[in-house]
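Summary of Year 1 activities. Much of the first year was spent building the evaluation harness for sequence design. The harness presents a backbone, in tokenized form, and records the residue chosen at every position. We chose the following record to illustrate the format because it has been used consistently in internal testing since the harness was completed.
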């Protein structure tokens, strides 16, 4: 009996085994990135026909940040900001290059997955997370390019007009889901989630669709009736109230112009292909989330789902990204998991820059001093918790958008402005910047405009590669 009492007392005095402590205070992180996914998901209000049941379910069980925006509206630069927690005005990347590790300002900055690895996490990463060169394997060799394996493409162009960029093609191809790199990645992630880990994990899974080319198997096209696909609102006079030099930020675009899309009769089928690709990637997300649900990690894993920027499909007569309007900056952003009560969607502004500080806080890691975003923990506790700082997006040097709960101010390098009231004008049709009644709100929002900005950093090869072409609007 004495021995038993002694053992019971001893069990209270001894520290808990490390694994138990780690599990109770450090949740796992499943970090799901989607490439070029705009707000055409049914948990946002971007397109009335979008079918995304798996992401909708995630939105319902966690926090849906309906006013979330990228830091830079183009792939690599946005990802450099997400993964470093640093804005373009500091790191100087506003385009498809240079790579993270080429940026002098990020040389000593650990990516979020590196930071978690350095603080005791097991890291696994697969797909397009940081770099464009990626494959469907998951590896603990994070932050490196690992060669490229993409989904198969038809031998000949399928839908695109002959003079368009090769990336801008679309159609029902290949025949089976199993041939798609994103499906293979989802299945690899699902397999990895079945494993047991002796430490908490940070698993990054980066899907490539709905990035162009918009090829997905036929069944995803069949989800939508091509003849009844709704096209975005695009009044002819919408561009009349824009400042002259809004055009200059569209240099380098490889996307077709709106005139090219309309003249070739491609708008409806491109819209159809984008919606098909969105439902396809939703299915990929579902494979991973179902695997998590049936695993031992379900109760102790934070799920974060984000897209690197939005995408225009003709709104403001523009295609693709790089603008400072809602279609380019707005992104799906969902966070769910232990401690996050389901609740109303959060209307407060959120930035992808906030992911790094948010996850560091939720996982009880030491604060990282380099971060420029704000933790979203207050809005995860209470979705109506107000937030003073707006979401700031920068596109090329000197052009910024300030998005608060109700407003968007755009300020271009030459000082020209646009102002939109999202309470009455969610499509940003009416530029109020010249109306004297809005002087005060412009002054208030302008205090957030970056006053210092690093010039655009370009490596030598980048300077050679990008030859500016005329913007979509200039070409008309
Ligand atoms: Ca992208
Ligand atoms: Ca307008």
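For this record, the design step produced the sequence shown next.
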């Amino acid at each position: 009996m004495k021995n038993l009492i002694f053992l019971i007392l001893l069990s209270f005095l001894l520290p808990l085994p490390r694994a138990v402590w780690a599990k109770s205070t450090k949740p796992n992180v499943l970090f799901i990135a989607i490439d070029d996914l705009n707000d055409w998901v049914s948990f946002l209000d971007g397109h009335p026909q979008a079918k995304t049941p798996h992401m909708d379910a995630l939105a319902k069980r966690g926090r849906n940040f309906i006013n979330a925006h990228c830091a830079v509206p183009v792939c690599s630069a946005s990802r450099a900001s997400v993964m470093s927690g640093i804005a373009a005005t500091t790191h100087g990347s506003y385009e498809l290059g240079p790579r993270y590790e080429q940026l002098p300002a990020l040389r000593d900055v650990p990516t979020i997955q590196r930071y978690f690895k350095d603080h005791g996490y097991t890291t696994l990463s697969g797909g397009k997370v940081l770099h464009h060169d990626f494959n469907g394997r998951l590896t603990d060799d994070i932050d490196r390019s690992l060669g490229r394996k993409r989904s198969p493409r038809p031998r000949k162009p399928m839908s695109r007009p002959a003079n368009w960029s090769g990336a801008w093609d679309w159609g029902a191809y290949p025949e089976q889901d199993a041939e798609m790199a994103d499906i293979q990645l989802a299945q690899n992630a699902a397999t990895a989630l079945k494993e047991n880990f002796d430490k908490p994990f940070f698993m990054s899974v980066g899907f490539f669709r709905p990035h162009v080319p918009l090829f997905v198997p036929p069944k995803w096209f069949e989800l939508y009736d091509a003849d009844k696909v709704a096209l975005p609102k695009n009044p002819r006079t919408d561009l009349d109230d824009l400042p002259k030099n809004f055009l200059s930020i569209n240099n380098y675009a490889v996307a077709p112009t709106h005139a090219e899309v309309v003249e070739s009769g491609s708008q409806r089928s491109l819209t159809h292909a984008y919606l098909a690709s969105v439902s396809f990637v939703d299915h990929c997300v579902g494979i991973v989330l179902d695997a998590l649900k049936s695993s031992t990690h379900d109760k102790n894993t934070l799920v974060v789902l984000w897209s690197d920027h939005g995408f225009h499909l003709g709104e403001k007569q523009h295609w693709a990204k790089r603008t400072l309007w809602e279609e380019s900056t707005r992104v799906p952003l969902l966070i769910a998991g232990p401690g996050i009560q389901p609740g109303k969607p959060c209307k407060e502004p959120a930035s992808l820059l906030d992911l790094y500080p948010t996850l560091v806080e939720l996982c009880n890691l030491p604060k990282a001093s380099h971060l420029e975003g704000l933790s979203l923990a207050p809005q995860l506790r209470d979705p109506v918790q107000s937030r003073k700082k707006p979401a700031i997006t920068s596109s090329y040097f000197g052009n910024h958008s300030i998005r608060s709960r109700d407003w968007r101010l755009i300020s271009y390098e030459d000082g020209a402005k646009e102002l939109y009231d999202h309470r009455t004008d969610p499509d940003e049709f009416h530029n109020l910047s010249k109306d004297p009644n809005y002087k005060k709100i412009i002054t208030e929002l302008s205090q957030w405009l970056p006053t210092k900005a690093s010039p655009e950093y370009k490596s030598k090869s980048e300077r050679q590669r990008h030859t500016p072409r005329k913007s979509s609007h200039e070409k008309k």
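The first strand starts at residue 28 and ends at 34. Quantitative recovery figures across the full test set are reported in Table 2.
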